[in-house]
Fold this sequence. Notes:
This protein is α/β, with parallel strands linked by helices and 387 residues long. The protein is built from ten helices and 13 strands. It has helices spanning 4-15, 69-81, 86-109, 117-123, 132-144, 163-173, 232-236, 240-284, 310-317, 323-336, and strands spanning 31-33, 48-53, 59-63, 124-130, 148-151, 191-195, 211-212, 289-290, 303-304, 345-348, 354-357, 363-369, 375-379. Strand 2 and strand 3 (59-63) form a beta hairpin. The two termini are 41 Å apart. Mean pLDDT is 76; it is low at 218-241 and 288-304.
Amino acid sequence: xxxxxxxxxxxxxxxxxxxxxxxxxxxxxxxxxxxxxxxxxxxxxxxxxxxxxxxxxxxxxxxxxxxxxxxxxxxxxxxxxxxxxxxxxxxxxxxxxxxxxxxxxxxxxxxxxxxxxxxxxxxxxxxxxxxxxxxxxxxxxxxxxxxxxxxxxxxxxxxxxxxxxxxxxxxxxxxxxxxxxxxxxxxxxxxxxxxxxxxxxxxxxxxxxxxxxxxxxxxxxxxxxxxxxxxxxxxxxxxxxxxxxxxxxxxxxxxxxxxxxxxxxxxxxxxxxxxxxxxxxxxxxxxxxxxxxxxxxxxxxxxxxxxxxxxxxxxxxxxxxxxxxxxxxxxxxxxxxxxxxxxxxxxxxxxxxxxxxxxxxxxxxxxxxxxxxxxxxxxxxxxxxxx
Length: 387
């Protein structure tokens, strides 16, 4: 189970709830709440946040889940049977208002700039929600396109054929003429759905294979849906908001633990693959060298083509490494003399780093790619001159 996108988007899913008493959505980290000026909700049960990253200028939309026990029971029951609700309409109109504001900002800076819907969606980093809010994130991805994360919310497949969906398409096409009439249903990775409970497995998810934890089980419509998931003392005082935000905290802790286990497994696999591939190459091609060394220069010796060249590593990173970083990295690796020319292999790690192995299969270095984009080169091999 890949927790990367969940952990990245989860802060806005939680911030969308606010404190449940006196405030709406709250700012989190570098993501500031931006007021929506052209949105008039039709129900008091709907809440969402429009966030802008003060560092990158990107936007996110976070949809809150249920705000009381009656809302939880009614909303999840309606979603389970595929019934359209006023909150579904509010979610799509909220998203439309957010896209209008993104467009206004683009044109304010340059009134000749491209402000097509595809450009607006490229500025919208992701749409996310938890529980019922996750369903609204998935619904809006199906309506508008773009990226979305559904955290333990029901699937919305049965809503796409409802007349309200088509009516809202026609309504929004007046504002966005380039909005497609059909739903976005491709399973192309733009939607990620996670199930941590029965609710996340309810309904039909659109364009995503649900990633479910081992303790998530299919919902029993008779015994489960009418009962709100209230917990402990908070249940006694009817604070569904607190129960749900505590649930998000529990999901975050579970996801972090799972992500750490998965990363450790991938690192162990990378070490194992490095050892095995180096041994296989030595056994089958004892007189050959790798295709290219760290400086990306072809060797004069006929080579066995390996997928673990420095060139292939850089190609796999795409736009995550700047040209200056790539050049500096090649120069520094060459200067370290980790194993001579033409005999280094690079095994990618989670997060964009890599293990560096010599022709004997020994791990002699590591490229560390931090979440901030910085690179660090660690060498475990030291030559006779101490370099």
